[in-house]
Design brief:
It is a single chain. The chain has four helices and no strands. It is mostly helical. It has one domain. The longest helix is centred in the last third of the chain and has 28 residues. The radius of gyration is 15 Å and the shape is elongated.
């Protein structure tokens, strides 16, 4: 079970890298964003985050439900913003402000994870 948790954690970090990395590299651009990777990272973050909480509870390890709830809400909003950025990018080539919203919320979730 621990190996599975660690594998899911690695996937969670890869999703984080895709979400925040794409945002940080492209945040000064005004158009031409790569929203596919942003979207993939946001969805990966939500799915693997839920899986990590489930695996933690399955091992009878403590879970801070308030923190998890706040992080889930932020991750869901970031995922919706990433979807909207991707759809808008495909439609008219303008992913802002949704692109920045998704990336910024990803950064906020990092600070919550580390500092709370």
């Amino acid at each position: 079970m621990e190996i599975l948790r660690l594998l899911v954690l690695c996937l969670h970090f890869l999703g984080l890298t895709a979400l925040v990395g794409v945002f940080l590299v492209q945040m000064r651009q005004h158009s031409g964003f790569n929203t596919k990777l942003l979207l993939t990272g946001a969805i990966t973050q939500v799915v693997t985050g839920i899986a990590l909480v489930g695996l933690r509870e399955a091992q009878d390890l403590p879970v801070n439900n308030i923190k998890v709830g706040v992080k889930l809400l932020i991750a869901l909003i970031a995922a919706v913003a990433a979807v909207l950025a991707h759809l808008r990018q495909r439609k008219d080539g303008k992913a802002m402000p949704f692109f920045h919203t998704a990336g910024g919320l990803g950064l906020i979730n990092i600070f919550i994870a580390v500092l709370w």
